[in-house]
C-alpha cells in the first residue's frame, strides 16, 4: 500500500476511536492489505493519538493462545501500543461510555527495569530484565464493526486494545512460577473461567521474548519502565454497567475492576 | 438429591452384572436408562454399591473415593448438572511413570485432579470445605484415567453413577504438600500429551475450590449411610476437560506447587 492509503486507514481508525463508532473491516475495503501494511496503519493511528497529547507507555501482546491463532488463521501473536490515555488504576471505575464494544480479559503484566533489545532475546533475558509482574485486566475493544476481524484488521486497529488496569500486588518472577500460576476469573462474585500462564505461548515470558525480538527486527527496543501486557489467560468476558470482575493469579494476587455506563454498541 | 431406590433387587443385580461385565471385559454397552427410563440416581448408587460389594468379596481393597463431574467444563462435556462420586480400589492404582495398558479399557481419557489424603474420618451431612481441610493429612497431584463403559461416552447421571463414575485407573504422584501451605483455589495445571499442551485450567474450576468437592462427596456418602474413613485417598474431580489417550501416548500433568504426574499408554 502506498503512504496515502496507509494514512487514510490510520486516520479512519483514529476518527472511529475518537468518535466511539465502528468502521467496516479494512479487508472488505482493501482485500490486499498485508500484515506489514497493517502495522503501518497501526503506527499512523497511534501517531495521531500521540499528536493529540498521549504518550506511549508500553506494549500489548495479542493473539497468544492457540484457539485464537487458529480462529484468525495465524501462527504467531500480534502487538499493539499502550498509551497514557488507556491507563486505569485498580479501584478505578471504568466508564464504558469511553468504549465501543468492550470485552475484558485477564493477563499478567510485566514491568521492566532494564531495556531489552532484540533480536536474540530469550525468556531468560525477559525474567532478568523484569522489575515485577502484576495481575491485570485488558479491556479490549474494536473499532471494526461487530468484531468481524481478520488478523490485518486487528493489527491495524492497534491489536484491538481498549484500556487496561494493573493490579497493585507486585510479584517477583524469580519467586513465582509464571508458567504454572493459575488464573481464576470471577464476574460479580461468581466463578467465570480459569486459566494458567502456559496458555500464553507456553509461558508469558515466551510471549514477551517474541515481542522483544519482533520489535528488535524493526530497531525498536523495550525501554526500562515500560509495561507489557503479555496476553490473555482467560476467556473474553462481556462487560456491562455495574459489573465487577476479579482476576487472581495463584501465588501472586488479584486485580479488581468495576464498570459503569454504556458502551457505544 | 434424592437417593430413592425404585428398582427391584433383581434388576439392580442384573444391571450390576451388565456393568461388571463391561468393566472387566472392556466393552461398551448402551446406557442403562435406555432399558430403565425411570431409573433414579439412587438406583445408580445401588448398582455401584453392589459392584463394590462384589469387588471387595473378590479381595479388592477400597482405597478411597473420587468426585466426578465437578467442573462446568466436565458437566457441559457430559451433559449433566450434578456431581457424582465413585469408589476407588487398589486394583485401579498405577504408579507414577507407569506404562498403562489400554487393552483392558474401552475408550480411556485422562484428566488432572488435586487429590486429598485424609487423617481424620469425615461424616456428613453438613460437611464443609473447612472441615475437609482440617481433616486432611496432605494433598498431592493426580491423574485419573476415566473410561465410561457406555457407547460413545454418552450417558446420563443414573447410568454414570451405576458405572462407578467412569472410574478406571488413577495415578497419584508429584509432591505431597500440606493444604494449609497452599492456596488450593488458584493452583494452575497444564496437561501435556506427547509434548503438546492439550488442556489447561486452575483448581477453582472444581466447584470453586477442590475442598468443596470433597465436602460434597462426604455429604453424598452420608445419604448412602457411609462416612469417609481416615486414611482415604480422595480425588476431587477433573480441573480440565478429559482428553482421549491411545497406545503410544505419553502424558504429563504439571501442577503449580505440586510438581507433576506422568505416565504412558501401551497396548
Commentary on this structure:
The complex is a heterodimer of chains A (265) and B (267). With 265 residues, chain A is α+β, with helices and mostly antiparallel strands. Chain A has one domain: Fumarylacetoacetase-like, C-terminal domain (Fumarylacetoacetate hydrolase, domain 2). Chain A is built from seven helices and 13 strands. The longest helix of chain A has 17 residues, at 3-19. The mean pLDDT of chain A is 96. Chain B has 267 residues and is α+β, with helices and mostly antiparallel strands. Chain B has six helices and twelve strands. Chain B has helices at residues 9-25, 41-57, 72-78, 129-134, 157-162, 210-223, and strands at residues 62-68, 84-89, 99-101, 109-118, 136-146, 167-172, 188-193, 196-202, 233-235, 243-244, 250-255, 259-266. In chain B, strands 1, 2, 4, 5, 6, 9 and 10 form a seven-stranded mixed β-sheet that branches. A five-stranded mixed β-sheet of chain B has the order 3-12-11-7-8, with no helix packed on it. In chain B, a hairpin with a 3-residue loop joins strand 11 (250-255) and strand 12 (259-266). Chain B is globular, with a radius of gyration of 17 Å. The mean pLDDT of chain B is 95. The chains are: A alpha+beta (265), B alpha+beta (267).
Could you write a compact summary of the structure shown?
With 265 residues, chain A is of the alpha+beta class. Chain A is built from seven helices and 13 strands. In chain A, strands 1, 2, 3, 5, 6, 7, 10 and 11 form an eight-stranded mixed beta sheet that branches.
CATH class of chain A: Alpha Beta
The portion of residues forming beta strands of chain A comes to 25-35%
Low-confidence stretches of chain B: none
Task: Find the count of extended strands of chain B (DSSP E, 2+ residues).
Answer: 12
Q: Taking all residues together, what is the mean pLDDT of chain B?
A: 95
Total domains of chain B, how many? 1
Q: What number of domains of chain A? A: 1
The CATH topology of chain B comes to: Fumarylacetoacetate hydrolase, domain 2
